[in-house]
Amino acid sequence: MAYKRILLKLSGEALMGKEGYGIDPGTIKEIAADVEAVRGTGVDVAIVVGGGNIYRGMRAEQQGIERATGDYMGMLATLMNCLALQDNLERLGLPTRVQTALQMGAIAEPYIRRRAIRHMEKGRIVIFACGTGNPFFTTDTAAALRAMEIGADVILKATRVNGVYDKDPETHEDALFFAEISYMDVLERGLKVMDATAISLCMENKLPIIVFNMKIKDNMRRVVLGEPVGTIVRG
């Protein structure tokens, strides 16, 4: 195996499937099956899930809601996604724990770094909800932060395309694919891999990011096994 501990970053939109909103049951089952295949290799797995399929804080400003309030609403949306993912993983017999950056003791554990690491050491999948717990920070930044806190070897960024391109390949047939790209190139080109804060954190701590197409079955497991899938972002 190329990695012993990974952090998977899923956008909320990844859970929508073709629905355009909310959580598509078929899509989340497929994601859970892919995670099961990765966990079956013996790799420690942590997951950060976004909430854009339900609510985005930045959208709140357009609706006349204060940005900080909107961001907290978005954090609650991430928790809904995490609980749905937890349910699907446990249906496959995988032990999981949801940890949240906001206190909600009735449904999830508070985020405690050492406890999260201990869960993974016991073979449990840990799903981190509510981002960093602070407004104005995205779940991309939360993924970078949590990955470093738990000692992950890599961030796996699941997308709808095969990796990083110089422009959107879904709308530009001449988009150029990068098999490998540096953190600085991502920042200077303004490529939408993760937000600038997350990329900068990864760059400062030499944490690689692999961007791969989650719609291709078994891609996630292939990445963990070290096969050349997607794009790797590193120094």
Description:
With 235 residues, this protein is an alpha/beta fold. It has one domain: Carbamate kinase, CATH 3.40.1160. 37% of the residues lie in helices and 20% in strands. The chain has helices spanning 25-39, 57-62, 67-91, 113-121, 139-149, 183-189, 196-204, 219-224; strands spanning 5-10, 44-49, 96-100, 109-110, 125-129, 154-159, 164-165, 177-178, 180-182, 209-213, 231-234. A nine-stranded mixed beta sheet has the order 4-3-5-2-1-6-10-11-9, sandwiched between helices. It has a two-stranded antiparallel ribbon with strand order 7-8. Strand 1 (5-10), helix 1 (25-39) and strand 2 form a beta-alpha-beta unit. Helix 1 (25-39) packs across helix 3 (67-91). It is globular, with a radius of gyration of 17 Å. The relative contact order is 0.16. The mean pLDDT is 94.
Brief overview:
With 235 residues, the protein is of the alpha/beta class. Helix content is 37%, strand content 20%.
Write the layout of secondary structure elements.
Layout: E1 5-10, H1 25-39, E2 44-49, H2 57-62, H3 67-91, E3 96-100, E4 109-110, H4 113-121, E5 125-129, H5 139-149, E6 154-159, E7 164-165, E8 177-178, E9 180-182, H6 183-189, H7 196-204, E10 209-213, H8 219-224, E11 231-234
Parallel strand pairs: 1-2, 1-6, 2-5, 3-4, 3-5, 6-10, 9-11
Antiparallel strand pairs: 7-8, 10-11
Helix pairs in contact: 1-3, 5-7, 6-7
